[in-house]
Write a structure and sequence with these properties.
There is one protein chain. The protein is an all-alpha fold and about 45 residues long. The protein is rod-shaped, with a radius of gyration of 19 Å. The termini are far apart. The protein is about 95% helix and about 0% strand.
Length: about 45
């Protein structure tokens, strides 16, 4: 029974880490998205 609880706790911790990474990635896209889009447009126009 204890082994099952430890395994479940590990899965919950991995889930929380994945959720945190997803939130940070979305926030980064929202903050830096327009700048990256502008940069790619300039690079594409110069090629």
């Amino acid at each position: 029974m204890l082994e099952l609880r430890e395994r479940a706790q590990g899965l919950v911790e991995y889930g929380l880490i994945i959720a945190l990474v997803a939130v940070l990635a979305i926030a980064g896209l929202i903050i830096f998205g327009p700048a990256v889009s502008s940069l790619l447009s300039k690079l594409g126009g110069s090629v």
